[in-house]
Design brief:
Distance between the termini: 35 Å
Helix content: 10-25%
CATH architecture: Beta Barrel
Shape: globular
Order of helices and strands: HEEEEEHEEEEEH
Structural class: alpha+beta
């Protein structure tokens, strides 16, 4: 593979151009890497007390649906979000965040411990003391992600 970098003061943001004869595994890996880098910088806006706050992804512990609304929990606060869980999944860094049920996404860096003694599910204790359960549908995905 050949790599060319062109410095041009007319550009505000970096632009990526891949020139290839055909799609290969190597090209797909590069595209996925760039997409992940963009996802890690995606902004998540949370509402609290009639104010909008920009939330850092690394500060999020869990994002969940309750009574038709979406909430994001940090160590110190709870925010309401306007995006749906599937939209958040696309924005969140998939190396940090994983879907554990149809109604919840957790930050793997904020998981304190796992209890595998439950049959068909996993109990997660999070850094803030919250407890979440991985639904049966997502258990194999979680085990694969964590190398269990």
């Amino acid at each position: 593979m050949q790599l060319n970098i062109k410095i041009d003061g007319n550009y505000e943001e970096p632009e990526t151009l891949i020139t290839t004869a055909r799609m290969t595994d190597e090209v797909n890996r590069i595209v996925n890497f760039i997409n992940q880098s963009n996802a890690a910088t995606a902004i998540i806006s949370g509402f609290k007390n009639d104010k909008v706050e920009l939330l850092e992804q690394k500060e999020l512990i869990r994002i969940y649906a309750e009574e038709g609304k979406i909430y994001a929990k940090t160590e110190s606060d709870l925010y309401q979000l306007r995006l749906r869980l599937y939209e958040l999944e696309e924005r969140l860094d998939d190396t940090l965040f994983v879907r554990i049920s149809n109604s919840e996404i957790v930050n793997l860096k904020k998981v304190k411990s796992l209890d595998l003694s439950f049959v068909g599910t996993i109990c997660m204790e999070l850094s803030n003391g919250d407890v979440s359960y991985v639904s049966r549908r997502y258990v194999s995905k979680i085990k694969k992600t964590l190398g269990l």
